[in-house]
Structures are given as structure tokens and as C-alpha cells.
Design a protein that fits this description.
The protein has a domain of 37 residues. It has 1 helix and 4 strands, in the order βαβββ. By secondary structure, it is an alpha+beta fold. It is globular and about 30 Å long. Bound molecules: zinc ion. Zinc ion binds next to loops.
Length: 73
């Protein structure tokens, strides 16, 4: 019954030490501030572009998008 259990791993090095990059103006809650402090979440700026990554790996530094369009037209 837990649909929020998706584990994000780095596609390059399989690390689970991943930071979610947030764009726009998030609602600053104490939870969000804690996540930013602990490195779980990073603010990517106010403008999200088509090629803006969604995640960054803290182990190898790779950045990637949630839905990578692989070979899709
Ligand atoms: Zn990595």
C-alpha cells in the first residue's frame, strides 16, 4: 500500500546518495529547509528548462532527468 517507496538510484554509478533538484518557487516549509540543509533537495532556480536535470548524484556528480527520452522521437 506504499506507493511512495520508489528508490532513486544514479544511472551512472548506482549510488542512492541522490539529491532532488527543485525548480520554481517551492513553498518553504521547515521540512523543505531540512531537506535542503541535509542535501536531499537542491534548488535549481526559478526557471526550469527542457534540459534541466531533476536529480543530481552526490557520489559521481551526474545530473539527469526523471524521464529521459531514450531514442524517442
Ligand atoms: Zn552517480
Amino acid at each position: 500500500m506504499n506507493s511512495k517507496s520508489e528508490k532513486i538510484i544514479c544511472p551512472a554509478c548506482s549510488s542512492e546518495n541522490i539529491t532532488l533538484i527543485m525548480y520554481g518557487m517551492p513553498a518553504f516549509s521547515s521540512k523543505l529547509m531540512d531537506e535542503i540543509k541535509s542535501g536531499e533537495t537542491k534548488l535549481g532556480g526559478c526557471c526550469v528548462r527542457d534540459d534541466s536535470p531533476d536529480y543530481t548524484c552526490n557520489s559521481c556528480g551526474k545530473e539527469w532527468k526523471k524521464e529521459e527520452k531514450l531514442g524517442k522521437d
